[in-house]
């Protein structure tokens, strides 16, 4: 990455000070999806992650059912 480039993605820089420092030093414009808010203050780009997190539990439960190879106790 170098000056003048724009990075638009999920960055989650809080636990990664090294990456944060490099982006600042290289004068990269970095826009984190997780910080974008709509006119109501909501975080619309995080909705797919929330949905995936909720569905993961249901998908795991289906995979553990006997007819999908789950084990009897």
From TrEMBL:
Entry-linked InterPro entries: AlaDH/PNT_N
Gene Ontology biological process: alanine catabolic process
Annotated organism of origin: Parachlamydia acanthamoebae (strain UV7)
Pfam families hit by this protein: AlaDh_PNT_N (PF05222)
One of the record's GO molecular function terms: alanine dehydrogenase activity
Annotated ranges, domain Alanine dehydrogenase/pyridine nucleotide transhydrogenase N-terminal: 1-48
Name the UniProt record assigns to this protein: Alanine dehydrogenase/pyridine nucleotide transhydrogenase N-terminal domain-containing protein
Assigned GO CC terms: plasma membrane
């Amino acid at each position: 990455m170098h000056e003048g480039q724009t990075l638009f993605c999920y960055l989650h820089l809080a636990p990664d000070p090294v990456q944060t420092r490099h982006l600042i030093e290289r004068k990269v414009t970095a826009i984190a999806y997780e910080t974008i808010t709509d006119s109501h203050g909501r975080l619309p780009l995080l909705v797919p992650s929330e949905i995936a997190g909720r569905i993961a539990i249901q998908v795991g439960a289906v995979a553990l059912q006997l007819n999908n190879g789950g084990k009897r106790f």
